Amino acid sequence: MLGCSPDTAMAQAAFKEKNALPFTLLADEDHKIADAYGAWILKKRPSGEEFWGVQRCTFIIGPDGRITHTFGQVDPAGHADELLQALRA
Prior knowledge:
With about 90 residues, this protein is α+β, with helices and mostly antiparallel strands. The chain has three helices and six strands. It has helices at about 10-20, 30-35, 75-89, and strands at about 1-5, 25, 40-45, 50-55, 60, 65-70. The strands form three sheets. It has a two-stranded parallel sheet with strand order 1-2. A hairpin with a 5-residue loop joins β5 (about 60) and β6 (about 65-70).
């Protein structure tokens, strides 16, 4: 399991430690990974201002390297259960 965001490696390490995450976090500062997965998107603030950022999403990648499930715009509150159901299927 991997996590990825455009945060720095130092910020990722602090976040992993603070939240006791049992998986690797990748620093994608140049957002090449997010671009490749279609997760670097144009967003809009409530004020109407547009900016580029990461869409919170999850991809399940099978042993053959192919994406088997995609979850776009996930809500962290209930996503773990949704993810576990997909992994058990």
